[in-house]
Design a protein that fits this description.
Length: 371
């Protein structure tokens, strides 16, 4: 599973690295709503939440589905404005002005992504003009509770009023905390964008992409950019209706999230964290392989043994009461998933669990097999 962006024939000068205050505000709001996703930001989130006035805190709760469970594309409005530059603005006010100019149908689709994510990259008619889609949106909103139903109804009935309400909310966030936060992180983001631009100019797209994230790759003939995610989608950076272009946005608040805007009719955007964990996350395919390898009860019992000390195949067969060939088949699965290491001692081959790798999958699992 991955998001693939067609870049065949895309001129290098149409690939842009720039900071976006509106996109960064969106991720800052996400970090406030989901501090568990961002352990490195607990101090900032706690202090910021404590300083919010009750009225602003209540209004943020009303709209948090725009950034809590899904990251709405309204925070990258520059990519969805027909005829626009396709690049972020220099200030939050400038980007909010761009958001005001996004057509109602497109704004409504982006704001309702929390109920329509399953059809995100299909390009269905807007619920503003399609009765069937409107009914579907209201039905899906009902599963999220009365607050989402009220928001969806207001948005479909009077989008201008909701848009004005949302702009005031974001402006109040800027006054309350984001202006100071942006002044603190802007230099870091601008410097990172400048560095990636220089890599692109002097060493090419593959080198620049590799510096962005190990989850990004460009195929050998430079026709496709792949974003390794547990999601599926396709888009193009050379849509004649939109204009050629691909935008990369650095984020201070992003880790561990790597966002890829791939909605039809929008310019593709990749928002990436400038700071990451100590170790890069493995490819999604490898993560799936590891979880599958650990889902078998015999392999769990093998892990329990070899987590404590190295075992030979024969020792494991004796301990588990199964045949040596069966143990070998299970060990092969674990080894392919990168979960065990082997070393030779004379004529014996010893197998041992790589505790460091397993620990990154979850402390509960590690504690369970070591208990």
């Amino acid at each position: 599973m991955s998001v693939r962006i067609d870049i065949a024939g895309l001129p290098q000068e149409r690939i842009v690295f720039e900071a976006s205050p509106l996109a960064e505000l969106g991720l800052a709001l996400h970090a406030l709503a989901e501090p568990g996703h961002h352990p490195g930001l607990h101090g900032w989130a706690t202090a910021t939440a404590a300083s919010l006035k009750p009225d602003l805190a209540d209004r943020l709760c009303e709209a948090d589905f725009l950034w809590r469970t899904t990251f709405s594309d309204i925070f990258m409005a520059f990519a969805g404005l027909p005829g626009g530059s396709g690049r972020p603005g220099a200030t939050l006010a400038e980007e909010l002005d761009v958001l005001d100019r996004v057509p109602d149908e497109r704004f409504v689709d982006a704001a309702l992504e929390f109920t329509c994510s399953h059809s995100y990259d299909v390009g269905k008619p807007s619920p503003l003009i399609d009765p069937d889609r409107r009914a579907q949106v209201m039905e899906l909103a009902a599963t999220r509770g009365p607050q989402q139903v009220d928001f969806a109804r207001r948005l479909l009935t009077d989008p201008a009023d909701v848009r004005a309400w949302l702009r005031r909310l974001l402006e109040d966030c800027d006054e309350a905390f984001f202006a100071d936060t942006w002044r603190r992180v802007q230099g870091q983001l601008v410097a990172d964008a400048r560095h990636k631009t220089e890599l692109l100019r002097h060493k090419g797209l593959p080198e620049a992409v590799a510096a962005v994230s190990p989850a990004l790759s460009v195929d050998d003939d430079r026709r496709r950019l792949t974003v390794d995610k547990l999601a599926h989608g396709t888009t193009t950076a050379v849509d004649p209706a939109v204009g050629p272009g691909l935008v990369f946005i650095p984020s201070h608040f992003g880790w561990p999230h790597l966002l890829a805007l791939h909605a039809p009719g929008w310019r593709p955007v990749v928002q990436y964290p400038v700071s990451a964990g100590e170790l890069p996350a493995p490819p999604v395919e490898l993560l799936e392989r590891r979880l599958e390898a650990l889902s078998h009860p015999i392999r769990l019992r093998i892990c329990r043994n070899i987590a404590r000390s190295p075992y030979t195949t024969g020792e494991l067969a004796y301990a588990l009461g199964i045949s040596a060939p069966e143990v070998s088949r299970h060990l092969a699965v674990l080894k392919k998933a990168g979960l065990i290491s082997t070393r030779r001692r004379g004529r014996y081959v010893l197998h041992q669990l790589d505790v460091t790798v397993v620990a990154r999958l979850g402390s509960d699992f590690l504690e369970g097999i070591l208990r």
